[in-house]
Specification:
Blueprint: H1 3-18, E1 33-34, E2 48-50, E3 57-59, H2 62-69, E4 73-80, E5 104-114, E6 118-121, H3 123-126, E7 131-135, E8 141-150, E9 155-159, E10 182-187, E11 195-206, E12 216-219, E13 231-234, E14 239-247, E15 254-258, H4 259-272, E16 278-279, E17 282-286, H5 289-295, E18 303-308, H6 313-317, E19 324-328, E20 331-332, H7 336-344, E21 351-358, E22 361-368, E23 370-371, H8 376-393, E24 400-404, H9 407-412, E25 422-427, H10 432-435, E26 443-447, E27 450-451, H11 455-463, E28 470-477, E29 482-489
Antiparallel strand pairs: 1-14, 2-3, 4-5, 4-7, 5-6, 6-9, 7-8, 8-9, 10-11, 10-13, 11-12, 12-15, 13-14, 14-15, 16-23, 17-18, 18-19, 19-20, 19-21, 21-22, 24-25, 25-26, 26-27, 26-28, 28-29
């Protein structure tokens, strides 16, 4: 290839890379980034890492790290009834059935942060799900409820009950990360549970979707579909991020939410189920040397106002385009990130004092922060999901409704007189019974060898099955005229 051809090929590849980021998030964003959608190439395994204090070589044993953390990493299964899927679930596996109500499923990862059953994952993993199932490292499965969400940061807090004391992932400090530091990701990419991949921190503070909140950790540790919501771990086994997105057309480019950002909102998620952030209503940009020269700015640091939202706190306070925010309360502002971090950490309604530079003049403004808007679509989907989950709970931990088999019902369904049990009259389209392929019209004869001649006997037998355990149900199927055994994992009725 001649020199000109080589240059064209190089430029074409570069443009293709820049256009190749694909969104995994549910927020409106460039199509370039996608939540763990494509597989990135796995980097070489690390040999040593330089010690911070002494500069000596320290062995990095990710086998030991994975062994410590694996038990706290979970699989999150999101099932949606019928053909209408959740926006956040990226891939579906159709149940083998001709039934149009068959559930569709998407899988993600998560990690346990509290021994009582609190689990962190991505919001896009659970968005719009009718049924959430968390599978632990020991194979037990539990129905999970959404305890809180933050669509803006793409974080969800789940809760499972009846599991006993659980192993907990140790939290680290993402503020101490450095580019080039070794990290590993643990999750369930493409359904391969508890996969471990290793790489380094490639960049800190990457902005992808929301310029006002994003501060992603970029890593070359391989991330794929199913990794979303899993932990990014440092060489000492501490969680320093939540894997969230990956480039679809460029190998070795994945992204994780810094754990410090997640931990900062955790109290609100637990107490209120949502996050309230202070909001100014301005578009800010850092002051660069070219902008400073072009605008003839009198200061070389601060946050430059490029837009003011109509009827916002900033407009009411008198902020204008080209103002430079140099201080917020007692904080000296060096960049737009300083303002964003400070304001979003404050509660709505807080009175905040701004120091600004307007041309050659200095001004002091007082502003009452409002609440950062939450996308109406996200709030509506959460309310809808809550209602559907509540309806599903009425069908019990196995996700089915039964009634006693009387003579007329047996005759109508062509069930022999020798068959004694309770007939299935309703199946939750995204519940355990539906996933085990039970259907209305079948007769439950026994649950774990206990006869179920009445509804009361059936309920008593089911009540003896602990959350996460499997019930062996003996069924009569009038279509095939056969008695079969079916295994169903109990949700525990949470």
């Amino acid at each position: 290839m001649n020199r000109a051809g080589w240059l064209v090929a190089t430029l074409t590849g570069t443009v293709g890379f820049l256009l190749g980021l694909v969104a995994l998030r549910t927020d409106p964003a460039p199509r370039a980034i996608a939540s763990a959608r494509m597989t990135a190439a796995q980097p070489l395994m690390p040999v040593v890492e330089t010690g911070r204090a002494t500069g000596t070589a320290v062995a990095v044993d990710f086998a030991a790290v994975a062994a410590r953390v694996n038990a706290a990493v979970v699989n999150v299964d999101a099932a949606v009834r019928g053909a209408a899927g959740a926006r956040g679930v990226q891939a579906w596996r159709r149940d083998l059935s001709d039934d149009g109500a068959a559930p569709r499923e998407g899988k993600g990862s998560g990690f346990i942060i509290d021994a009582t059953g609190y689990i962190l994952t991505n919001f896009h993993v659970v968005d719009g799900a009718d049924r959430l199932t968390v599978t632990l490292g020991d194979g037990r499965a539990f129905r999970a409820e959404i305890a809180g969400i933050d669509p803006a940061l793409d974080v969800a807090l789940l809760k499972i009950a009846g599991s006993g004391a659980l192993p907990v992932a140790v939290m680290g400090d993402s503020q101490q990360l450095r580019a080039g530091q070794w990290v590993c990701a643990i999750g369930n990419p493409l359904g391969y549970v508890h996969s471990v991949t290793v790489g380094v921190v490639s960049f800190l503070g990457r902005k992808l979707f929301d310029q006002t909140l994003d501060a992603y950790i970029q890593t070359d540790a391989a991330i794929s579909l199913g990794n979303s919501g899993g932990p990014l771990i440092d060489a000492e086994g501490r969680v320093i991020g939540m894997t969230t997105a990956v480039s679809s057309q460029a190998a070795n480019i994945g992204f994780a939410i810094p754990i410090n950002q997640v931990l900062a909102i955790l109290p609100q998620l637990r107490e209120r189920g949502r996050v309230s952030r202070g909001f100014l209503g301005v578009g800010l940009t850092p002051i660069t040397a070219p902008i400073e020269r072009a605008l003839g700015l009198s200061v070389g640091r601060g946050a430059l106002v490029q837009d003011v939202t109509a009827d916002s706190a900033a407009e009411r306070a008198g902020l204008r385009p080209y103002d430079i925010i140099t201080g917020v309360d007692d904080l000296d502002v060096h960049s737009d990130d300083d303002v964003i971090r400070y304001v979003t950490a404050r509660a709505p309604g807080t009175i905040t004092h701004l120091r600004i530079q307007r041309g050659s003049e200095r001004h002091a403004l007082q502003v009452k922060l409002t609440e950062r808007p939450i996308p109406a679509s996200a709030a509506g989907r959460l309310r809808s999901t809550d209602a559907r989950q509540a309806a599903a709970r009425e069908q019990g931990p196995l996700g089915l409704t039964v009634r006693e088999l009387d003579a007329s019902s047996a005759l109508r369904r062509a069930i022999p007189e020798t068959v004694q049990g309770v007939v299935v009259v309703g199946v939750d389209a995204a519940g355990p019974a539906r996933l085990a392929r039970l259907r209305p019209g079948q007769v439950v004869l026994e649950v774990n060898r206990l006869p179920t001649l009445t509804v009361a006997a059936f309920q008593a037998a089911v009540a003896r099955v602990k959350p996460g355990e499997t019930a062996a149900m003996r069924i009569y199927d009038p279509i095939t005229d056969q008695r079969i055994l079916v295994a169903i994992v109990s949700d525990g009725g949470t």
